[in-house]
Amino acid sequence: EPLPAEQCYYSVTFIGLKYGKREQWINLLKNRGIDVNCFGYGWETGPVSGDEIPQIIRKSVISLNFSDSSLQIKNLIPRRIKQIKARNFEVPGAGGMLLTENAPGIEKYYVLGKEIETFTNLDELVEKINYYLNNNDKRDDIAYAGNIRTCKEHIYDERMKDLIGSALEIKEKNNLMLKKLQRDRDWKQRFSTLEDRHKVNKSIQFFRDIIIKTLSMVFGYHRSIKFARRIVYEVSWR
């Protein structure tokens, strides 16, 4: 259950990795006179444990979320997109008031301005932070409404009901179809053929190694492995 704003320890917090434009956003807020406590890899405070995260959220008047993704490959071009994240549900679920960068489809899950709040640019972000810091009753209304909506519709038990139900229906239809097809197909041999086609060959391995060595100088070894895997995947299936 949310804490009233007057009982919160933090004014504004952000929990997450320091990458992309996040540092720029935070610095711009500080230049506008808004102090944000940041937690996570790259920030001065450093990372916090999983058990601490919901406690920080609950004790914050406002919890920020940025909708930028890590680098995605689209048409062989690296870019960042706006996306709905787990944090969009974790904040109201943990009793916090969510102020998140807008992302396509977020309105399907919460009533904007009543259960969560969103922003699209710095001026709007500053305006809404100042508004809710100075109007505790409005902040509390959103925190409570968002928490109720999350507990009612967005916890794992509720979200998985529809998913599992749909999966079982599809499975039943597929079972009927497979029984019909298995009379005249050697599925074991067919699977083996497909498996051989999708194994990593020497040319793909060579291509991957070149990418890793090149990108390691910029992004480091571990991030380069993930980036190389994504590039190889995109190129190979296309």
Care to count the β-strands? 7
- Helix tally equals 9
What is the CA-based Rg, rounded?
A: 23 Å
The major beta sheet can be summarized as: 5 strands, parallel
Mean pLDDT across all residues, rounded? 89
Characterize the quaternary organization of these chains: single chain
Q: Stretches where pLDDT falls below 50 for ≥5 residues? A: none
User: From the helix content, strand content and strand pairing, which structural class follows?
Assistant: alpha/beta
Beta-strand residue percentage: 5-15%
Q: What is the spatial order of strands in the main beta sheet? A: 2-1-3-6-7
The outline comes out as flat
Helix content: 40-55%
Order of helices and strands: EHEHEEEHEEHHHHHH
Task: Compute the separation of the termini in Å.
Answer: 48 Å
Report on this structure.
The chain is flat and about 70 Å long. It is built from nine helices and seven strands, in the order βαβαβββαββαααααα. The model has no long low-confidence stretch (mean pLDDT 89). Strands 2-1-3-6-7 form a five-stranded parallel β-sheet, sandwiched between helices. The chain has a two-stranded antiparallel sheet with strand order 4-5. The protein has 238 residues and is of the alpha/beta class. The chain has helices spanning 22-31, 52-58, 87-93, 122-134, 136-154, 156-181, 187-197, 202-219, 221-237, and strands at 10-15, 37-39, 60-65, 72-74, 77-79, 98-101, 117-119. The longest helix is centred in the C-terminal third of the chain and has 26 residues, at 156-181.
